[in-house]
Amino acid sequence: MVAIGLYYPYVHFRDLAWIKAAALYMPQLARVVPPGFRVSDPIEVQALRDGLGFVENFDPADAVEAASAHLLATVNAHGDELAGAFGVGPRRTGGVNAEPSPPEFPAHIDNSRNTRRFGGQGLAGLYPGEMTATLRQALSESGLAVPAIRNSVSGGSGSEWIGLDPAVAWVYKCALTAEVARRTAFIPLTDQVAAHTAAGDWDADRMAAVLLGGSVGSTEMLDLTSRVGVLSLQYVLPARLATVPVDKIVELRTKYQSEFIAYTDAVRQAAQKLQENVGDIPSRQALELHLRQAVHHDFETKVDDLRKVMNGIGLQTITTAISARFEMPSSVALFSAVGAVASSMMGTMTGAAGTAAVAAFGLVTGARRQSDQAAAANPTGFLLRVERGLKPTTLWRRIRHSCGASL
Asked: In angstroms, how far is the first alpha carbon of the chain from the final one?
């Protein structure tokens, strides 16, 4: 089964480097978008959506009833306690300027606009379509919610939202995400460190424990499929992925689609093997060690081996053949052939130089074909494509590229 990610706890992606990386190990990424919600994506996300169909908006209507029932049960059982800790004051209209955040994490607050505050901190917003009318009424009557205008965080104005304490909003977002994932088999993914504990079931008991206990409880590991993908990809990604043009990622996914599929299959299989062998061990630290060892064995070492093979194919083939053909030192012949190929591309190929260029071009083509075959035969071939397609090109790599030893 193909792995499909489920982004949470927001609609708009907060980290462009994160979504670029996700597009290199996850075939597709869904996000919860209730009816009527106005999406405003940056051009990078639009490119991934339009060029790859990577981002898919998903209507959470089927999951809203169940998630709302959990929070409603929590409010009915602990309304006074919750109001004392997370009440938002008298019923009045205010602005939304805070992000949903776990109880022990301070909410990010945007003070760039003149927005009201309740209880000494900003309001986080939930879109009306994300919850039932019954839950909205219960939250309002308990002093846990007020009507609000979403005029800061989302960048839109004039949209009526439900304003809540950031912790209450975060708990409900996690519950809605978990319910959508249960119904779809999507894999919850996030670019927010504080939200990594949002996996698992979010019933009324867990909500109460998190909100009134002040802790998210035991930290749960991210889904093993996404963890394997992230760790294997980190081995080849450039340090500043945020600055890499998104068009390069679209090109890699499109040009090497079969290799991408083989790689994602290898990620999924590695995760399944880990789940079967050590997925039930109680120690999260030990599981992380097993995970990193598996990624090193199944991906990093194979990338190293493939890198050596692909580096050797082009240079060895060309230097050996040119040395035999022209009877000159291989290094001199190599650069002469590269120059001849460049001359032929400029239309200035004549005489002996033309003969050398034709011969070299044939060798270049053969070397590139062998490199492509080596990458296609290895499930980690796509990782090497990523490494060579996204990192800055040096002079020596440009020469090797001319010789067919890279992409």
From this structure: 29
In angstroms, the Cα distances linking 370 to 204, 212, 221, 305 are: 59, 62, 40, 15
Digit-coded pLDDT (tens) for 175-184: 999 899 999 9
User: What are 265's two structure tokens?
Assistant: 């299959």
User: From edge to edge, which strands make up the β-sheet containing 55-58?
Assistant: 55-58, 28-32, 4-7, 187-189
Report pLDDT digits (tens) over 283-322: 878 988 999 999 999 989 888 877 777 665 544 444 444 4
**Bridge pairing between strands 160-164 and 124-126:** antiparallel
Backbone angles phi, psi at 111, to 5 degrees: -100, 15
Of 10, 6, 158, 207, the C-alpha closest to 98 is: 10
Cα torsion 153, 159, 161, 166 to 10°: value is 10
Q: What is the pLDDT of residues 122-163, one digit of tens each?
A: 788 899 999 999 999 999 999 999 887 765 444 444 467 899
Judge if the upstream peptide bond of residue 42 is cis by omega within 30 degrees of 0: no
Q: Report yes or no: 306 and 374 within 8 Å, Cβ to Cβ.
A: yes
**pLDDT of amino acid 108:** 59
263 contacts 375 by C-beta, under 8 angstroms: no
Instruction: Return the CA Rg of the chain.
Output: 27
Phi, psi of 145 (to 5 degrees): -150, 150
> Would you state the pLDDT for residue 91?
46
**Percentage helix, strand, coil for the chain under 3-state DSSP, each rounded to 5:** 60, 10, 30
Residue linked to tokens 């890499």: 244
Helix segments in 190-329, DSSP class H = 204-213, 224-234, 246-255, 257-278, 284-295, 301-326
